[in-house]
Amino acid sequence: MLFQQHRLAAGQGDPAALDGLGSMFESGSVVPVDFAKAYALFHLAASRQSSDPALVARAIAHRDTLGARMSSAQLGRVNELIALCNGSDVNRCGEIIISAGGLTVAGSGTQTTRNGLSVSRDGKMIVPLEESSGVYLVPVVVNGVMNLKFLIDTGATDVAIPADIVASMVMSGFIEQADFLGERTYRVANGSTMLSQTFRIRSLKVGNIVIENVRASVLPEKGPLLLGQSFLRRLKSWSLDNALHVLIIE
Fold first, then answer.
1. Which residues contact 69 (CB under 8 A, 6 or more apart)?
2. 130-249: what fold?
3. How far is the C-alpha of 126 from the C-alpha of 134, rounded, in Å?
4. Is there a contact between 56 and 90 (Cβ–Cβ < 8 Å)?
5. Whole-number Cα distances in Å, 223 to 24, 64, 161, 163, 205
6. What are the two backbone dihedrals, phi and then psi, of residue 227, each rounded to the nearest 5 degrees?
């Protein structure tokens, strides 16, 4: 039976098997339709090391296409499923996801907040990272309205956003002139200094954690968005699980 073959291979961390299982849960082939399990399995497949970049790209495409069709409650349950893997051998994660019950997952180590996101019972938020061009990004909601994806940069003094995105946010009214704080000198990785405009972000939301009044700097156009220390140091604690590719916030 193909399902059992995929299940056994997934137990060895095989990304093709994880992707195949995700497709089964998405389509309802052999197993009941379960978008949350499908997304979680696609995410796990996309996170595994593979000698075939096309395989990883396919899993990412499957995950992102499915995610666009899912409700916030369904996406919140994805966080629940991935949270169940925290602390377990990564090769067991696929089996944990497959074996998880329905919406009662919250009783097995997580609790669900009203916005559909989940935290574990010990107070930790599990946020899946999204792969893009070989790096893993954190989904962030800026000022309550704009969804952006940031690279975690512990060496960046402040959150940093490229000038073209800042200009777009100003034009849309997401950033007001009163939010700009003046210029500040920053030291960059090569040891040189750079003068940059700074501004106040009224709120940054990661998972269900909201940090208000975060200082940010303006980077040159087309650069990466950086989640720097002006956000990170205001968390009680945080860590990255490089096997599951999730951000864990306490």
1. 35
2. Cathepsin D, subunit A; domain 1 (2.40.70)
3. 21
4. no
5. 38, 23, 8, 8, 21
6. -95, 95
Backbone dihedral angles phi then psi of residue 99, each to the nearest 5 degrees = -85, -10
Report the DSSP beta bridge partners of residue 214.
Answer: 201
pLDDT value of position 217: 93
Residue pLDDT, tens place only, 106-152: 333 444 443 334 444 456 778 888 877 778 888 898 988 888 889 99
DSSP-derived secondary structure letter, 220: P
Burial class (CB in 10 A: 0-12, 13-18, 19+), 69: exposed
pTM assigned to the model: 0.61
Phi, psi of 219 (to 5 degrees): -95, 165
Q: Are the CB atoms for 125 and 249 separated by under 8 Å?
A: yes
CATH 2.40.70.10 residue ranges for the chain: 130-249
Q: Residue 215 in contact with residue 229, Cβ under 8 Å?
A: no
Q: Let me know: does 115 contact 72? Beta carbons within 8 Å.
A: yes
Torsional class of 120: left (φ above 0), alpha (ψ -120 to 50), beta (otherwise): beta
- Mind listing the pLDDT tens digit for each residue in 71-115? 877 877 887 788 777 766 777 888 888 887 653 333 334 444 433
| Amino acid letter, 155 | G
